[in-house]
Amino acid sequence: MVGNIVGHHKSPFRGSSVEFAEYRKYVPGDDPRLLDWRVLARTDRYYIREFEADTNLRCYVVIDCSKSMSFGEKGTRKFDYARKIAATLSYMLVHQGDAVGLEIFDDGVATDIPPRRNPLHLRYIFDTLAAAEPRGETGLVNELHQFAERIRQRAMVIIISDCFCDVDELLNCFEHLHFQKHDFALFHLLDPLELDLDLDRPIRFQDMESSDVLLAEPEIIREQYLEAVQEYLVKIHEGCNKHNADYRRVATDQPYDQIVADFLVEREQLAKGRG
Amino acid sequence: MTFLQPFMLWGLLLGLLPILIHLFNRLRHRKLPWAAMMFLRMANRKSTKYAKIRQWLVLLFRMLAVLALIFALSRPLAGGWVKGVMSGKPDVILILVDRSASMGASLGEQTRLERAVETMVESAKAYGDGVRYVVMEHTDERPREVKGGVAALPNVVGKEATDTAADMPTLLEAAADWFVETKPGIGEIWVASDLQSSNWDPAAKERWSRLSGKLQGLPQTVRVRLMALDEPMPDNVSVRLLEAARQRVADQVELVLKLEFTRASSLPVELDLAVNIEGEDKSASIAMEGASHENELRFPLRKNDQSGWGRVELLDQADGNARDNVAYFVYGEPIQAQSVVVGAPDRFATRFLKLAAAPDPANTNQVSRIVAPSAAGQETWTDSAMVLWQAPLPSGEEAERLTNYAKAGGLVVFFPEDTGDPGSFNGLSWGELKRFEQDGKTFDNWQALVAAEDEQQHLGFRITSYSDREGPLQRTEEGLYLPVDDLRVNQRKAINGDGMVQASFEDGVPWLMTKTIGKGQVIFCGTQPNDVWSSVTEGLVLVPMLQRLLAEGEAMLSGRYVQGHLLAAGDDRAGEGERWVSEEGGDHSAKDFNLEAGVYRMGKRVVAVNRPQREDALISLEEPEVRSLFGEVPVTLSQERSADGVADDPQEIWRWFLVAMALALLIEGLLVLPKGADERVEIQRTATGKVPTQQAS
Predict the structure, then answer these.
(1) B220: exposed, middle or buried (Cβ count in 10 Å: 0-12, 13-18, 19+)
(2) pLDDT per 10-residue tile (average), chain A, 275 residues
(3) B171: left (phi over 0), alpha (psi -120 to 50) or beta
(4) Nearest alpha carbon to residue A141 among A164, A158, A157, A113
(5) A185: which chain B residues are within 8 Å (Cβ-Cβ)?
(6) Do B43 and A248 touch (CB under 8 A)?
(7) What are phi and psi of B221, to 5 degrees?
């Protein structure tokens, strides 16, 4: 993890921690203080002893705040669910000394809170989350591109969205984030009803992000609907795998604490694996 | 295409139900804000290609199922190519059997009836057991279902001919009614008859025209197949009793039998007769000349033989029809006509009526008696030729008994009371009581009216209209009028009801009204035989009127109740509840009064029943004549089985519509069948949200 202060996460750079990393040959310009004198005395060769540098985490929690996130027919609203995940993760990260920032997108950038790691900042994040309400169309694709450009330092990006946008464009965003060497995870929130379309009787579907209306009989179009959803989900999942993103498909009737706990445990195991 | 139940076609409107339900469902949609519209749009686009077609197909097949059901219930008939795929069998064959006496004629070793049954069975075998057979005989016109197929057919048809005459138009009308009422599908009417002209009544053109119209008016084609059994039979002689009388000649008592013999040939022939009188066998022989011959036979009787019965039988082994060789007779004392006057015995009107009903004390054949109204409840009236009712109208059981008497052939004459009478009898009732007034002055009796009259003047209610051609007021045999318009009516009671007015006053109020009830009559007379009311007490009108009615009542009653009268089998049927028992005993004890000739007893009454006279007329119709009777209705002979016969008749095809309905429902079921579990799309979900790579789909 690339950080600017000492933290709990391994930095890609060598530093001054107690964790030995490797020996390497001295090259002019190296700090002579880092020479391993014992090796020099025994072998008359110049080696530099390097240690792992511990650093802190810079994490951005990105929440899709488009109007579609307010859907919640069977479970809780997707946005409320997103708020819970964002708040939980922010709390835990700040309390372990990591910096957490918050990005809320609707059709533009609604909120941009840069990462900080003090408790007051956490309070600010909570208040911002509480005050946010879904509105407008999804601007996720554009905003993620701009966001990827905006943050120069590598960071952990946690995206919480229903991803109701063009899949190919969304995968371009993921590629962009991956190119910028950001470590990112996607919490793909979906209402259970959106996953099974378990409705009878004809229904006039009103698009939440536009004035479009569609009269359809769920019983007739269910098969085609589920096929379309399936195709879309597979595509996103494969895109995430391709760009080393951690993909979590979350139905809003699932307990969020289990989702977050599993996410954290897996990250921990991943970190140990790297070490 | 025609339909047996066309009104059911209104049900075709129900075919719109699936569409209406579909539209109604679409109308009662609910609104739902939706986020994942992109998938819905995609699904909707895809569904137009197949799912919508499937949806419309489902609707179409539902409609077809409903329509097919309605069509099936309407019982369609189809001809032409549609019918070509089906068998040519009719659905039902209604067999009409003429069991008249002439059907007992011998054709070699069989009678005509036996031959008819044999022909029917042979013809029916061609169709097999897949056809419904119903038998209707002329004797009761009651449809009898043949259960057990063709083989059971001979068991349903009566084994022997009867002594009745058939009324074929009535039988065919009953057949047409049966088709109208039961709507049995495509049918054939098989008629087994010897085409005896008197049975077919070709002169009744209007009746036949109505009948053929009714048969043609049936929604399905009904063919008539004629089994004409008109082959000539061996020489036949029939015997008929014209009269049987017990006569006293000097100090001898004789039985006089007037007989008529009929045969086709006019060659002289010697006939041997066996006569049985009260169990005693006698024989006689006569020489018959010509085709019809009347003969009178006299047989001595014992003086104490007041009444009895017997039979005359023609002895001829080679005779063409054994059923017309016997004539039955009964004899006895002349009948006595008894009139009953119901009224207070001390009233003038009652006594006057008693006298008018039997005016000649020397005539012992006419008697009358008075019954007090209080005792009228015990009377059964059955032996009365006429009942004169000078009392308030009867009600309850009393009225019912009197009605039954009238229905059986009795005559009841009602006269008005001085007071109001709110009752009614078989739809007739008394109206307003009115006394004649002139210048506000009323008169005590009809004599006072006459006294107040000037020359050429006629005071009182005047009867100006009456029927002098027929009825009780008709002219005498000499052509003389009854002096009805000379009657002085001082007081009258109007008559209300739907009877036939025989005489009426100037102002149209009826004076005499008759109404036929069953075989008898009810008569209302608007004035009482009393001087205060009218001059009918003079007797010039009322006495002859009552005598005529009495003669009519006597004639009507004698037909049923009085000993000695001759009846015709089938024409004079037993009334309701009557049980006539054969007097002959032995093998003949189980005879049927309505079907067989014989001597029958019911209580003290003994009657002789013979063949109807018309049954002895052996003239047969030719086949073209019979065909013409049926008009446009297709008639084939039993021997004919032309290619344009049944094969061209429309057939019932409701079963095909039921099959179509079942198919439509089956296809609809297949279309709406949900996909199997292995074909269904199911989106993977895990508790942690982590989707394994290999299970991404």
Answers:
(1) buried
(2) 50 52 82 86 87 67 91 83 93 86 83 86 92 86 86 86 89 88 90 87 87 85 88 91 90 90 85 61
(3) alpha
(4) A164
(5) none
(6) no
(7) -75, 130
Return the residue of A nearest to B23 by Cα.
A202
Asked if A225 contacts A205 with a C-beta cutoff of 8 angstroms, the reply is no
Q: Are B609 and B596 in contact (CB under 8 A)?
A: yes
- The Cα-based distances of A180 to A55, A237, A271, B25, B333 in angstroms read 19, 20, 20, 54, 143
CB contact under 8 A, A201 and B47: no
Q: Answer for the pair B93, B132: CB distance below 8 angstroms, yes or no.
A: yes
Position B562 scores a pLDDT of: 42
Contact B371, B347 (CB under 8 A): no
Residues 157-176 of A with CB under 8 A from B: 162, 164
Chain B segment 23-52 residues within 8 A of A by beta carbon are: 25-26, 28-44, 46-47, 51-52
* Closest CB from B44, B54, B683 relative to A216: B44
* Beta pairing class for B463-466 and B500-505: antiparallel
Residue A54 forms contact with B (CB below 8 Å): no
HSE-up (13 A, CA, CB side) for residue B404: 15
Burial class (CB in 10 A: 0-12, 13-18, 19+), B455: exposed
Q: What pLDDT, on the 0 to 100 scale, is given for residue A90?
A: 92
Separation of alpha carbons B139 and B91, rounded Å:
25
Contact flag A205-B52 (C-beta cutoff 8 Å) = no
Count other C-beta atoms under 10 Å from residue B449's C-beta: 23
DSSP track, B321-363: -GGGSEEEEEE-SPP-EEEEEES-TTSHHHHHHHHHHS--TT-
* Cα B182 from chain centre: 18
Nearest residue of B to residue A217 by CA position?
B26
The angle, 0 to 180 degrees and rounded to 10, between the axes of the packed helices B542-558 and B348-357 is: 60
B177 min Cα distance to partner chain A (Å): 53
Quote the tokens at residue A231. Answer: 């195709």
Quick: pLDDT tens for B345-381: 999 999 999 888 887 777 766 788 899 998 888 887 8
Residue B676 contacts A where some CB pair is shorter than 8 Å: no
Nearest alpha carbon to residue A155 among A110, A109, A101: A101
Query: How far B657 CA sits from the closest chain A CA (Å)?
Result: 30
Rounded to an integer, what distance in angstroms lies between the CA atom of residue A203 and that of residue A194?
A: 14
* Predicted model pTM: 0.48
- Asked if A203 and B30 come within 8 Å (Cβ–Cβ), the reply is yes
SS3 assignment for B285-307: EEEECCCEEEEEEEEEECCCCCC
Q: Both tokens of residue B8?
A: 């059911």
Two tokens, residue A41: 């005395």
Q: Cβ separation of A228 and B687 shorter than 8 Å? A: no
User: What are the phi and psi torsion angles at B23 (to 5°)?
Assistant: -65, -40
Q: Given its phi and psi angles, is residue A183 left (phi above 0), alpha (psi -120 to 50 degrees) or beta?
A: beta
Contact check, Cβ <8 Å, A254/B39: no
Q: Does A248 touch chain B (CB under 8 A)?
A: yes
Tokens of A232: 């879309």
Phi then psi for B92, rounded to 5 degrees? -145, 145
- Where in B89-212 does DSSP place strands (E)? 92-97, 106-107, 110-111, 132-137, 143-145, 187-193
Measuring CA to CA, how many Å separate A122 from each of A96, A97, A113, A156?
A: 12, 11, 10, 17
**Closest to B126 measured CA to CA, from B627, B635, B639, B636:** B639
Q: Which residue has the tokens 């008898």?
A: B520
* pLDDT in the model for residue B512: 93
Q: Count how many Cα atoms sit within 13 Å of the Cα of residue A126 in the half-sphere of its side chain.
A: 10
